[in-house]
Write a structure and sequence with these properties.
36% helix; 286 residues; alpha/beta; Rossmann fold; two-stranded antiparallel ribbon
Length: 286
C-alpha cells in the first residue's frame, strides 16, 4: 500500500483485504475493517464513503503490513478482551484465549475461592478475572518471565486490583513457602509438543513466547515437574484447574491422580473438547 492523500473507508478496506488475503490471514475482510477502525480511532464499521485522514491512512499502511506479516491483531491493538475485561497484551505473554475463558466460567459456577495461586500467570488474565468476580479473594500470580509479569502488573493497575494480587518472578513454586496456603490453583502450562511447535499458525509460532508454549516431547513436561510441588501449597480440599491439549487430557488426568488429585473431571471448550481438568486435592494426609 502507498500512502494516499485521501482514501475512503471502502477503498481502504478493499486494499487491506487484498493484502491480508494474499498473506493467508483468515477472515481478511473482517480483519481489514478492524484495522481501519484501529488506524482511525473510530468505529470499525464506518460508512464506506467516509474519508480517512492522511494520518489515519498512514497508520493503516503500517498496521496492514504488520498484520500481513502475521503479527496477531491483539499485538497491534495492544489489548484483548477476556471475561468481559480489557487486558493489555504484548509479545511477552500468551494472548488470552476463548478456550481459557471456559475454565474461568466453570469456576464461576462453583463456590468462590479465598486464596488463589496462578502458575504461569502471563498477562494475569485468569487470576485477575477471578479476583474481579470474587471481591473477598486474594491471589498470587507466578511467572518465570519478568517481561510477562510487567504486563500483568499493568493489568493489576488498570483493573484496580492492587492490594489483592501479588506477582512473583519464579520457576513455578520456587519463590513460595512450602505450606498449605491456597484453596484454588489455576494453571495454563506449556502443553504444545516440541515437535509440533513448527506446525502452529505463524501468529502463535513466530510472535508468542516459546517458553509459554513448549511442553516438551509429550506436552506434559511442565505439569510433571509442577504437580509434586503444587500439592504442598494446597489446603485440604483445594481445587486445581489446568488447561491442556484435548489429546493430552488422559495423560494429565493420570498424573493428577498419581499426585493425589480426586474427583477429576473435564471442562469442555466451545467445541466440546476436553480442554480443562479440574480436581480436588484432599491434602497430603488425605
Amino acid at each position: 500500500m502507498t500512502r494516499p492523500v485521501s482514501l475512503t473507508v471502502g477503498a481502504a478496506i478493499h486494499r487491506a483485504q487484498a493484502l491480508l488475503r494474499e498473506a493467508g490471514v483468515d477472515g481478511p475482510r473482517r480483519e481489514a475493517r478492524l484495522l481501519v477502525g484501529l488506524a482511525s480511532g473510530l468505529d470499525a464499521f464506518l460508512p464506506t464513503d467516509t474519508r480517512l485522514s492522511p494520518d489515519a491512512a498512514g497508520r493503516l499502511e503500517v498496521l496492514v503490513a504488520r498484520r500481513a506479516a502475521r503479527e496477531p491483531y491483539a499485538h497491534l491493538a495492544e489489548e484483548r478482551e477476556f471475561m468481559g475485561l480489557r487486558f493489555l497484551v504484548s509479545g511477552a505473554a500468551l494472548i488470552p484465549r476463548p478456550e481459557t475463558e471456559c475454565l474461568i466460567e466453570a469456576l464461576f459456577r462453583d463456590r468462590p475461592a479465598r486464596h488463589i495461586l496462578d502458575l504461569g500467570t502471563g498477562t494475569g488474565a485468569m487470576l485477575l478475572s477471578l479476583l474481579d468476580r470474587w471481591p473477598d479473594a486474594r491471589g498470587v500470580g507466578v511467572d518465570r518471565s519478568v517481561a510477562a509479569l510487567a504486563v500483568a502488573g499493568r493489568n493489576v493497575t488498570a483493573l484496580g486490583l492492587h492490594g489483592r494480587a501479588l506477582l512473583l518472578a519464579s520457576d513455578w513454586t520456587g519463590a513460595l513457602r512450602a505450606a498449605p496456603t491456597f484453596d484454588l490453583a489455576v494453571c495454563n502450562p506449556p502443553y504444545v509438543r516440541t515437535d509440533e511447535i513448527g506446525t502452529l499458525d505463524p501468529e502463535v509460532r513466530d510472535y508468542e513466547p516459546r517458553l509459554a508454549l513448549d511442553g516438551g516431547s509429550d506436552g506434559l513436561d511442565s505439569v510433571r515437574g509442577l504437580l509434586p510441588r503444587l500439592v504442598r501449597m494446597l489446603e485440604p480440599g483445594a481445587r486445581a484447574v489446568f488447561e491442556t491439549d484435548p489429546r493430552l487430557w488422559e495423560g494429565l488426568a493420570a498424573l493428577t491422580e498419581q499426585h493425589g488429585g480426586r474427583d477429576i473431571s473435564c471442562i469442555p471448550d466451545l467445541a466440546g473438547r476436553r480442554r480443562g481438568l479440574i480436581a480436588r486435592f484432599p491434602g497430603l494426609a488425605g
